[in-house]
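**Sequence with structure:**
===
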Amino acid sequence: MASSFGITGPQRLVVRLIGRHPDISAGELAHVLHVHKSTITGVVQRLEARGLVRRATDTSDARRMHLT
């Protein structure tokens, strides 16, 4: 997967889910994937560094991030 698309399988799954559910929170994404929130944080940070995902702070709750 990494050699074909430049991202790992889990990263590709995260990108696909965010694409289907824009503005999903990291917690909701972790719940859907049945993984811990810290796992999603690492994947999202790597994707964000490559410009594939954007994080935006929720205006009503600064602890919550929306992913696009």
In short: The mean pLDDT is 90. The longest strand covers residues 55-57. DSSP finds four helices and three strands in the chain.
